[in-house]
Write a structure and sequence with these properties.
This protein is an alpha/beta fold. The protein folds into three domains: about 1-135 and about 270-310, BirA Bifunctional Protein, domain 2; about 140-260, BirA Bifunctional Protein, domain 2 (2-Layer Sandwich); about 315-360, no CATH class. The protein has helices at about 10-25, 40-45, 70-75, 120-135, 150-160, 160-175, 175-185, 190-200, 205-215, 220-235, 280-285, 330-340, and strands spanning about 30, 35, 55, 65, 85-95, 105-115, 140-145, 205, 245-250, 260-270, 275-280, 295-300, 315-320, 345-350, 355-360. Helix 7 (about 175-185) runs antiparallel to helix 8. It starts with 9 loop residues before the first helix and ends with a strand.
Length: about 375
């Protein structure tokens, strides 16, 4: 008897396993249309991974787009219910330019969104689900976590304009201390603040070693508050058996106009880029006229194609060869008999060149 799981690629198997995982934590399935009004994405293009969108005209002349993002559409349709959270999971295809091929690609994506009265418990649970999701794919993974409040507090101390913030965020993401120092000199940022930004980028590791360093850097009330919140979240996640997979890394950044609070990325050792990305996006909620908070993450299932998976030695157990003039009723019965024995069967009039079979049965 064939094991059903051996027939699936990692990304296909993941869809079933993740669905069960998220359902167990009270997340409900969310299904959306492939299309969205183009204007909606244009107004929020800075939130998108790529602003290159596939568009077409509907039968009524309205300009539509193949969805390049799931979160935006979920937030658009989310309600504001005081004291409650909407917990949703999805498995959708998005359409965007691939980073590797620079061509449009249909990308399989899964993820969760927690929207509403989001607190420390909800944030800690989302991080735990991110850990459990990565654990489904490989034992060798890490989840790098940052806090945009810490970054925002340091940039506020620098006291520069949006152009500086945009450039420095890019260099922080690259861990490029040389360019960070050069940019701070160009914008006349005082040396202690410039040194603080560089020090923050170089901090990496477990909470017990990182938090004492962070607290030494924390002078403003805004930074102290962000560090305190991050520490509280990390303490809540201590209950997870996968807690050792979390590292604090302040080079994990995202757009400050959309994201606040926790941001994170998940990596698997055999894949050179992050397979999971998420964070709190309360500011996006406000931009779309919502009062609630929100946190979620997406898993890029297409990247899991790079994982090795167990390939069956044979395509079928039995190659059932028959002649065109044979008794088709008896042929059908023979095929059914073999299937009932737990064997996979391919009935053919000739031997296919690339078919791998365990045995040949000639039907006379």
């Amino acid at each position: 008897m064939n094991n059903f799981s051996t027939l699936l690629k990692p990304e296909e198997k993941a869809v079933f396993e993740l669905r069960e995982l998220y359902s167990n934590y009270g997340y409900l399935p969310y299904k959306m249309s492939k299309f969205e009004e183009y204007d909606f994405y244009v107004k929020n293009k800075d939130f998108l991974v790529s602003d290159r969108i596939i568009t077409f005209n509907d039968t009524n002349g309205k300009l539509l787009a193949l969805k390049p993002d799931v979160t935006l559409s979920i937030v658009k349709n989310a309600g504001d219910e005081k004291g409650c959270t909407q917990k949703l999971f999805y498995n959708e295809n998005v359409y965007r330019v691939s980073g590797s091929t620079h061509a449009y690609k249909e990308i399989m994506q899964a993820g969760i969104e927690c929207i509403g009265d989001v607190g420390i418990f909800d944030i800690a649970q989302v991080l735990t689900l991110a850990l459990k999701s990565l654990d489904k794919f490989s034992e060798s993974f890490v989840l790098d976590v940052s806090h945009m409040g810490v970054i925002a507090a340091v940039l506020e101390e620098a006291g520069c304009d949006e152009d500086f913030n945009r450039k420095i965020m890019h260099y922080i993401g690259e861990k490029n201390c040389h360019e960070i120092k050069a940019l701070c000199e160009e914008y006349c940022v005082d040396e202690p603040t410039a040194e603080k930004i560089s020090s923050l980028v170089e901090i990496y590791g477990k909470g017990e070693t990182v938090f004492p360093l962070l607290k030494k850097l924390s002078q403003s009330e805004k930074m102290k508050k962000a560090v305190s919140e991050l520490e509280e979240i990390c303490l809540a996640v201590e209950a997870s058996p996968l807690k050792e997979k979390i590292n604090l890394d302040f080079s994990i950044v995202n757009d400050l106009s959309y994201y606040n609070g926790i941001v994170f990325k998940g990596y698997i050792s055999s894949i050179p880029e992050s397979v999971l990305s998420g964070g709190q996006y309360d500011r996006l909620m406000k931009k779309l006229g919502k009062k609630s908070g929100a946190i979620g993450f997406a898993i890029y299932l297409d990247l899991l194609e790079q994982l090795s998976y167990e390939r069956r030695e044979f395509d079928v157990d039995v190659l059932l060869l028959y002649a065109e003039d044979c008794n088709k009723k008896l042929l059908f019965e023979k095929a059914e008999e073999l299937v009932k024995e737990g064997k996979s069967v391919s009935a053919q009039k000739a031997i296919p060149q690339k078919l791998r079979y365990k045995e040949i049965v000639e039907f006379n």
